[in-house]
Amino acid sequence: AFFSGIGKGSKQGILFKGGASIEALGSIKAVVMDKTGTVTRGEFKVQQVAGGLEVLQLCASCEQQSTHPIAQSIVAAAQERDMELFTPDSLEEIPGRGIRAWAEGKLILCGNEQLLAEHRVDIGTLDRVMGTRVLVAVSGRFVGYITISDTVKSGAKEAVRCLTDAGLATVMLTGDEETAAKAVAQEVGISEVHARLLPQEKLEKLRTIRSEKGAVMFVGDGINDAPVLAGADVGAAMGSGADAAIEAADVVFMTSKVEAIPEALEIARQTSRIAWQNVIFALAIKFAVMLLGLLGHASMWMAVFADSGVAMLCVLNSIRILYKKK
User: Fold this and answer.
1) Are 53 and 83 in contact (CB under 8 A)?
2) pLDDT of 297
3) Is residue 155 within 8 Å of 189, Cβ to Cβ?
4) Catalytic site residues?
5) Residues sharing a CB contact under 8 Å with residue 279, sequence separation 6 or more, in sequence order
6) Which residue, among 115, 110, 100, has the nearest Cα to 136 in the 3D structure?
7) 3 state SS of 310
8) Shortest CA distance to 211 belongs to which of 196, 194, 233?
9) What value does the mean pLDDT take over residues 286-292?
């Protein structure tokens, strides 16, 4: 049954790393998702540059070595404008916050409000924006920000509806701005959102959700998601994500589609149902033949059927998983 479940998943681009992953999926009570690259496409585009094009040039120069989708969108926007980028003297990428770089004796910060707050940079009062905002500061002075937006994956709304109809709680954990996270969650129907979280805070929040709701499945794709994927009851990674996330996950969605989440859960439930059918059927037949044997009514052929015959029937029953339609 479990081999058939693994085979059915692979036909749909869902890779289960063993029968234990399928078995654990059958008891899931809540599905927790990252935002960028999981619910949204991760294809960011610069929408606004506040503070002049120098802000874009500074940020793109610091971000050009990063593999993060937001960083790549900023670099792409600078290249579209034929900007000449410089290489910082030194650079440090801080998970969940942004980048700290030094160039010509100046400290350049590119990241979220937490990064600038840690360096005591006053950003004043900023208007709310729809999207992710990257703040830029030079030598302790706030110089501007860049607003980037992302698009929701097609099928995400339908996938979340399927999860809700199945009685599962849906939660989003993200390091992005709260306004952008809530807008995406509202669009697709996710009931609970926790934004502006660092990687270790995501793990702590996941443990809280598990204690409140039960067994948890986490779906993510980034390097920052690896600790949460490893800490969840079942970790699922998008195939287009980082290698560290794929390595830490129990399930990999090669299609990177959100629809793969309810599909994986349905395969796990089918597998679990058929496995229990096989166990109960096999034990019932064996017990009946043993009882008939004790009473002197069982023949050798009945014993053969109770052993090999039942095994073959269980195998045939398990194969149904491979041919059952979605």
Assistant:
1) yes
2) 83
3) no
4) 34
5) none
6) 110
7) helix
8) 233
9) 91
What confidence category does residue 234 fall into, taking pLDDT thresholds of 50, 70 and 90?
A: very high
Q: How remote is the C-alpha of 25 from its chain's centroid?
A: 15
Radius of gyration of the chain (CA): 26
pLDDT band at 206 (very low <50, low <70, confident <90, very high): very high
pLDDT in tens, 245-276: 888 889 999 988 999 999 999 999 999 999 99
Q: In the chain, which ranges are E strands?
A: 14-16, 30-33, 45-50, 90-94, 98-103, 106-111, 132-138, 141-149, 169-173, 192-194, 216-220, 234-238, 251-253
Cβ contacts of 80 within 8 Å, gap of 6 or more: none
| Residue whose C-alpha is closest to residue 292's, from 278, 303, 281 | 303
The shares of helix, strand and coil residues in the chain, as percent rounded to the nearest 5, are 50, 20, 30
SS3 56: helix
* pLDDT one-digit tens code per residue, 3-19: 999 999 999 999 999 88
Q: Is the pTM of this model over 0.85?
A: no
Q: Token pair of 285, please?
A: 């037949």
CA 137, 138, 142, 147 torsion-angle sign: negative
